Amino acid sequence: MTVKRTPPERSYADPYNPLWNRAKRRERNRMARGNPLSTLREDIMTERKIYITEFDKVRLEELIEVAEEYGGHDRKDLESLAAELERAEVVSPEGVPADVVTMNSKVVLRDLDTSEKMTCILVFPRDANIDVGAISVLAPVGTAILGYAKGDVVEWPVPAGLRRIMIEEVLYQPEAAGDFHV
After folding, report:
1. Which are the contacts of 91, defined by CB distance < 8 A and separation ≥ 6?
2. Number of helical H runs and strand E runs in the chain
3. DSSP bridge partners of 172
4. What is the number of other CB atoms lying within 10 angstroms of the CB of residue 172?
5. CA-to-CA distance for 85 and 52, rounded, in angstroms?
6. How far, rounded to the nearest angstrom, does the alpha carbon of residue 41 sit from its chain's CA centroid?
7. CA dihedral 137, 110, 48, 94 (to 10 degrees)
8. Distance (Å, rounded) from C-alpha 141 to C-alpha 5?
9. In the chain, what are the domain boundaries?
10. Is 74 helix (H, G, I), strand (E, B) or coil?
């Protein structure tokens, strides 16, 4: 006899429910911007759309697949990247807005808590080099900024709490420069 297990029902207000966590983050963002009237339901309904090019999606899915083949099962960085790819709107390289962070984009980020600015390039893991500001897409900040645009605020959990950064400027985006296969 086969017993089918079903996961326990989770209420919307369960802190382990990803929708609840995402909604709470958005509520904090809106409160910080001076809009305390938003509701959790509105926050879920207005989830920020992110964009990814067809070319980047294929390469990133291949990266995840190879990493999993070589013992990368249950890695949070791969899970986070896969979740972002799943929810992203896929566009042609020519169709991606020029202010969106794609692979190999050079961006200026500002930490909203410290006002510190940092310039970085979003790269594949093999090209990561913190000394020159090349940040891996598998690093929490790399996964966080992928697909977002100038002016967007992104946040992710860190051991000390929640890190919030704003994408201040996209200095270089390969697609906007006509470099479609970088």
Report:
1. 51, 52, 53, 54
2. 5, 7
3. 106
4. 13
5. 8
6. 21
7. -60
8. 36
9. 12-47, 48-172
10. coil
- Spatial separation of the C-alpha atoms in residues 51 and 53, rounded to whole Å: 7
Helix (H) or strand (E) holding 90: strand 89-91
- Hey, what are 96's tokens? 């991606």
131-158 CB burial, b ≥16 within 10 A, e <16: eeebbbbbbbbbbbbbbbbbebbbbeee
The pTM of this model reads 0.70
Tokens of 77: 């960085």
Higher pLDDT: 71 or 120? It is: 120
Mean pLDDT of the chain: 79
Instruction: List the Cα angle 132/134/139 in 5-degree steps.
Output: 135
Query: What secondary structure does DSSP assign to 127-151, as a single string?
Result: G-BGGGTEEETTSHHHHHHTT-BTT
- State pLDDT tens for residues 6-64: 444 444 444 454 444 555 555 555 555 554 433 333 333 346 788 999 999 999 999 99
**CA gap 157, 69 in Å, rounded:** 27
CATH number given to 48-172: 3.10.50.30
Q: How many Å apart are CA 172 and CA 121, to the nearest integer?
A: 9
